Amino acid sequence: MTMTAVLLGVLAVTMAVAVWRMSAGPTDADRVVAVDLAFVVFVAAVALLAVRLDAPAVLILVLAATLLGFLTTVAVAHLLERWSS
């Protein structure tokens, strides 16, 4: 078993925990954090597969997706703050 296979397994378990938190989260903020975690895990899995398959062009897409994910999280946090007050 290679290191990438082990890491993909760890990412799969982390994704399962994030999906569970999305469904069980008592507040909207918990759900937003879980969605953000799931997105980060997905991006990490894509990056790991890009390294494993020796496809460096995919890493540019990973960088763009990470930036988009950060901006989305900031926007949703701003909306949640407005709705709660």
Any key phrases for this structure?
85 residues; 3 helices; membrane; mainly alpha; 0% strand; 88% helix; MrpF/PhaF-like; single chain
Short note summarizing the structure:
The protein is mainly alpha-helical. The chain has helices spanning 3-24, 28-52, 57-84.
Structure explained in plain terms:
Keywords: Cell membrane, Membrane, Transmembrane, Transmembrane helix, Transport. It is found in: Cell membrane. It comes from Streptomyces radiopugnans. The protein is flat and about 50 Å long. It has one domain. It is built from three helices and no strands. It is mainly α and 85 residues long.
Portion in helices: over 70%
Count of folded domains: 1
Any idea what the radius of gyration is? 15 Å
The major beta sheet can be summarized as: none
- Inertia-based shape: flat
Average residue-wise pLDDT: 91
Series of H and E elements: HHH
Number of strands: 0
Query: What portion of residues belong to β-strands?
Result: under 5%
Tally of contiguous helical segments: 3
Task: Please specify the SSE layout and strand pairing.
Blueprint: H1 3-24, H2 28-52, H3 57-84
Helix pairs in contact: 1-2, 2-3
